[in-house]
Write a structure and sequence with these properties.
- The chain is α+β, with helices and mostly antiparallel strands.
- It is built from eight helices and nine strands.
- It has two domains: about 120 residues, no CATH class; about 120 residues, no CATH class.
- Helix content is about 30%, strand content about 20%.
- The chain has a five-stranded antiparallel sheet with strand order 5-6-7-8-9, sandwiched between helices.
- The chain is elongated and about 60 Å long.
- The N and C termini lie far apart (about 45 Å).
Length: about 260
């Protein structure tokens, strides 16, 4: 195989790594996610392009051209074809391995495998690998919160018949109270970028995501909240609106980072 073929990157997917949008599985906030990839948490963020070289080895190319990556992702989401070839001038790093699980591979190449870091590749650093999500823990908790945010209507429907709960100010249990207090503290002491994120929801509402040590909160500004805890494997605890939650969610939305329009 020619050297240029070995150096080619066959793109499989791409993700954004910005304060407002980053793979939650990597960390509770943007700086933590950047640390996994040994990157400086620049405010402008990065695009991550995951693919295979000509030998089938896994590589993650980090580019500063966030717009190009975002446009490609948007096109793919709409079922359209879009070429994604980062300009070498915008490439920050080519990291061995993938930080995320992928179930796809490039046709006509060997099965995805970690590259052998010898010779010129010896200085590429440790091979990236996805966080362990085989058991309940921070990574699995954050993935669970991602799922609730994506499937809000389904999770919310489970409480539709319990209108009294949704509107009540019933005091939550001690674990949940601790989380809400930590979230309130974010209003006085702003957390690292990405700890609180706001995304579009239906109507004028926003979907809020807040994370902290051992917990994740998913909420809609016009509705309720769900809490996930490291210490409560697999449990999802709803928090009714009551009198305090609407004000708290509005305040959090005011300091949350948002995706670029």
């Amino acid at each position: 195989m020619a050297a240029d073929e070995e150096d080619s990157l066959y793109v499989l997917t791409a993700v954004l790594l910005t304060p407002a949008q980053f793979p939650s599985v990597l960390g509770d906030d943007y700086p933590a996610a950047c640390a996994v990839l040994r990157l400086e948490p620049y405010a402008e963020g990065y695009g991550l392009v995951l693919g295979q070289d000509g030998t089938g080895a896994r590589w993650t190319v980090v580019t500063e051209d966030v717009t190009q990556v975002a446009c490609a992702i948007a096109a793919w989401d709409c079922g359209m074809e879009a070429d994604l070839s980062p300009d070498e001038r915008d490439v920050v790093a080519a990291l061995p391995g993938w930080p995320l699980d992928l179930a796809v591979s490039a046709p006509g190449l060997p099965e995805p495998h970690d590259p052998v870091l010898e010779g010129d590749l010896a200085g590429s650093g440790p091979v990236l690998s996805p966080p362990d999500t085989s058991g309940w823990g921070p990574a699995q908790r954050r993935l669970g919160a991602d799922e609730i945010a994506l499937q809000w209507a389904q999770w919310r429907a489970q409480l539709e018949e319990n209108v009294e709960f949704v509107e009540s100010g019933e005091e939550p249990d001690a674990q949940v109270r601790r989380v809400l207090e930590e979230v309130r503290n974010y209003l006085d002491s702003p957390p690292p970028p990405g700890r609180i994120r706001s995304a579009f929801a239906s109507g004028d509402a926003r979907t809020l995501r807040a994370d902290g040590p051992g917990w994740s909160v998913v909420a809609r500004t016009d509705d309720i909240a769900f809490v996930l805890l490291d210490e409560a494997p697999g449990e999802v605890r709803p928090v009714g609106r009551g009198r305090e939650l609407p004000e708290l969610l509005t305040a959090l939305d005011g300091i949350a980072v948002r995706p670029a329009a």
